[in-house]
């Protein structure tokens, strides 16, 4: 062994053997009690030239006292299987990375997919020496900052792809050639900007005059046992098998027909709020949430938050006069210091709504003594800290806290952006509205009147109005501000009142005629809102096109008349009693708006499952030699283990496989989540023997749902 450790000794070990590595420092002298430090580097390469290049790199790292550029931190990624698709979502943790040399240099994310745990089939990009260097991603999401395409600094002659300024995203659905039943390995890596001499001038970095360097990305780690099974993996990697859902499956947040999932509890905003399911496994059942709005610097600076309505009740330890809650972003607006009944004030009645149902409450551990905000404690709601000032409570060493908190806090994207964080399997998208006429919703909502209309919104008011006809043309139901009679009432359906209006009585007959404008002046003020509605008794409709001959002018110019002409006359249909015309106005969200929804976990509808029993099948059928989703051997050549899949199964069932003579070959218990309606069989009997070729029968029994029988063939 000592001879093997002599300086300059280089051995080429045999391949395909268990290897023992011996490290030696060379000849050194040590006095009694003396200590010396040495470093060891394990260098690999495709050939001797590659080993030397890598050894020089290691030497540079050592010479610089291990002070070298580092890739961004790893994001945390979750993979969700679906029917011929896989959904990935991840956090933005990588974006806080600080390189010790290049500073904040995060640039983007790369998505990888492989059928091999080592991502071998992703390594398709070689360097100038022919060595496999880079993995080929299936997607890249990068900052929209101008840094795109091949990076100017090459690594061994190959340039890193920086993306196409696509913008950052935190969700990706892979549906390209994803095969149900096949196991895939996914990873999301974060990569940095690298550096070039022009990067500071171009605004890519805040640091200048640094050494040019190619980009780097964080690693992917999957540890395997001796059989090739994955025993651990890094947080940015996942193993997933695509599959169809069980029969009778009902997706999360599915409500019965006619019911609303999202309810508008208060306020008048008319924007769009969409709540989609990203991870059906993570959606809790019967959990209530509120979407609330707030302002930051100015009243126009509106943001939104998602509050979990579940009350957290926990005992907290007080350390250095601070008790830290399990969750940040405590809703401090729900703190009730007093329950005083507010009297009428000088300026009027205090109409503020005080939330006294679920206040933040601090008590001693026994719950017998309550403490007051400002007197006994204060709250840092952003961090979830209770700063205790009461000496008795500090001496007790603990307290009981009751509170609600925000899952999402002060999200600013209210323009329909899809990059909001995933919370408990769901994603929320908010599209705000500006005050303006909603032309699509402004129409006759009840009745058959064919009156056309024009709306002149001189000064809009954020509310919806209706003309509710309680009489026919010529009837007197109401009067305007100047006693002009009208067959309709004007209703503010948003606020539930009847605003004043005025009719332009052209013929001075003291009654409204269909062609006379109706001016809504809803509310007083220095600049009063003013909306004018005018109807037209339309008697023509474009139902035909008259074809006109080509016209030749004196100058020889040929002109074709392409005008569409009204050719069909229609009967005018006047509004009658019961008809309603709705004037819809888009309204932005405000701090008055509160929405509520209750999550619904996925489930199985047994009646639906019974109707779908005939969908149960075996794939492939017949089984010939191999299936496309069968795994490969990791450490040896040849085919991997055989398997077929039973698909469209109930979530719980027993599968029995028989020969044609009735001999029980194997029995499989399928008990999985609702999102998985597949079960694999390794083509081995219950005794662990390979089955023979031939035709087999199978029987599926699902308690409470029913039974199904079928057959499949195995050809070898």
How many domains comprise the coordinates?
4
Global structural class: mainly beta
Q: Give the overall shape, derived from the CA principal axes.
A: extended
The largest β sheet comes out as: 10 strands, antiparallel
- Unreliable spans are 337-356
Number of DSSP helical runs: 3
The number of strands is: 49
Instruction: Let me know the average pLDDT.
Output: 86
Please give the alpha-carbon distance between the first and last residues.
Answer: 52 Å
What fraction strand?
25-35%
Instruction: Give the fraction of residues assigned to helices.
Output: under 10%
Give me a quick take on this structure.
It contains three helices and 49 strands. It has 716 residues and is mainly beta. The strands form 15 sheets. Strands 13, 15, 16, 17, 18, 19, 20, 21, 22 and 40 form a ten-stranded antiparallel sheet that branches. A five-stranded mixed sheet has the order 43-49-48-45-46, with no helix packed on it.
Description:
With 716 residues, the chain is mainly beta. The chain has 4 domains: 77-241, no CATH class; 263-431, no CATH class; 444-586, no CATH class; 604-715, Sandwich (Immunoglobulin-like), CATH 2.60.40. It has 3 helices and 49 strands. Strands 13, 15, 16, 17, 18, 19, 20, 21, 22 and 40 form a 10-stranded antiparallel β-sheet that branches. The longest helix is centred in the N-terminal third of the chain and has 16 residues, at 48-63. The chain is extended, with a radius of gyration of 36 Å. Mean pLDDT is 86; it is low at 337-356.
């Amino acid at each position: 062994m000592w001879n093997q450790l002599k300086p300059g000794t280089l051995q080429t070990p045999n391949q395909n053997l268990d290897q023992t590595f011996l490290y030696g420092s060379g000849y050194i002298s040590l006095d009694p009690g003396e200590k010396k430090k040495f470093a060891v580097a394990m260098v690999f390469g495709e050939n001797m030239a590659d080993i030397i290049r890598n050894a020089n790199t290691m030497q540079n790292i050592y010479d610089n006292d291990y002070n070298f550029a580092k890739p961004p931190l790893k994001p945390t990624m979750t993979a969700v299987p679906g029917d011929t698709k896989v959904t990935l979502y991840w956090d933005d943790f990588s974006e806080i990375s600080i390189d010790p040399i290049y500073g904040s240099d995060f640039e983007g994310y790369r998505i990888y997919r492989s059928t091999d745990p080592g991502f071998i089939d992703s390594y398709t990009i070689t360097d100038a020496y022919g060595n496999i260097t880079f993995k080929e991603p299936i997607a890249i999401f990068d900052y929209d900052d101008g840094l795109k395409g091949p990076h100017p600094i090459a690594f061994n002659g190959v340039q890193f792809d920086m993306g196409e300024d696509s913008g950052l995203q935190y969700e990706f659905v892979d549906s390209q050639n994803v095969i149900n039943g096949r196991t895939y390995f996914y990873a999301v890596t974060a990569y940095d900007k690298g550096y070039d001499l022009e990067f500071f001038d171009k605004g890519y970095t805040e640091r200048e005059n640094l050494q040019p360097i190619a980009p780097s990305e964080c690693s992917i780690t999957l540890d395997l046992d001796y059989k090739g099974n994955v025993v651990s993996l890094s947080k940015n990697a996942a193993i997933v098998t695509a599959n169809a859902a069980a029969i009778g499956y009902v997706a999360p947040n599915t409500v019965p027909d006619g019911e609303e999932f999202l309810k508008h509890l208060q306020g008048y905003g008319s924007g769009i709020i969409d709540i989609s399911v990203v991870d059906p496994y993570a959606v809790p059942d019967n959990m209530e949430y509120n979407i609330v709005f707030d302002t930051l610097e100015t009243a126009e600076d509106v943001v939104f938050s998602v509050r979990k309505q579940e009350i957290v009740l926990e005992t907290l330890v007080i350390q250095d006069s601070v008790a830290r809650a399990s969750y940040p972003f405590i809703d401090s607006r729900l703190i009730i210091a007093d329950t005083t009944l507010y009297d009428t004030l000088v300026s009027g009645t205090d109409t503020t709504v005080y939330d006294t149902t679920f206040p933040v409450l601090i008590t001693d551990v026994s719950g017998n003594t309550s403490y007051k905000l400002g007197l006994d404690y204060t709250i840092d709601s952003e961090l979830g800290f209770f700063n205790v000032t009461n000496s008795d409570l500090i001496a007790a060493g603990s307290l009981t806290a009751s509170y609600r908190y925000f899952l999402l806090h002060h999200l600013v994207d209210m323009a329909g952006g899809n990059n909001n964080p995933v919370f408990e399997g769901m994603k929320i998208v908010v599209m705000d509205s500006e005050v303006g006429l909603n032309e699509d919703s402004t129409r006759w909502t009840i009745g058959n009147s064919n009156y056309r209309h024009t709306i002149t919104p001189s000064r809009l008011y954020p509310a919806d109005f209706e003309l509710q006809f309680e009489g026919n043309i010529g009837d007197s139901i109401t009067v305007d501000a100047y006693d002009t009679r009208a067959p309709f009432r004007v209703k503010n359906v948003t606020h539930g009142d009847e605003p004043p209006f005025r009719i332009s009585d052209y013929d001075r007959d003291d009654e409204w005629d269909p062609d006379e404008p109706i001016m809504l002046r809803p509310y007083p003020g220095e600049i009063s809102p003013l909306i004018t509605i005018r109807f037209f008794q339309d008697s023509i409709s474009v139902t035909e096109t008259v074809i006109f001959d080509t016209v030749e002018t004196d100058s020889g110019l040929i002109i074709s008349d392409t005008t569409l002409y009204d050719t069909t006359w229609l009967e005018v249909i006047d509004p009658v009693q019961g008809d309603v015309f709705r004037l819809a106005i888009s309204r932005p969200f405000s701090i008055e708006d509160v929405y509520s929804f209750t999550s619904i976990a996925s489930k199985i509808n047994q009646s639906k499952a019974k109707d779908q029993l005939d969908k149960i099948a075996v794939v492939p059928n017949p089984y010939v030699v191999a299936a496309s989703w069968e795994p490969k051997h990791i450490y040896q050549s040849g085919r991997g283990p055989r398997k077929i899949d039973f698909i469209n199964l109930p979530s719980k069932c027993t599968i029995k496989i028989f020969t044609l003579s009735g001999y029980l070959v194997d029995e499989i218990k399928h008990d999985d989540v609702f999102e998985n309606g597949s079960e694999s069989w390794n083509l081995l009997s219950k005794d662990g023997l390979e089955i023979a070729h031939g035709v087999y029968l199978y029987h599926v029994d699902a308690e409470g749902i029913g039974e199904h029988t079928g057959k499949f063939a195995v050809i070898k």
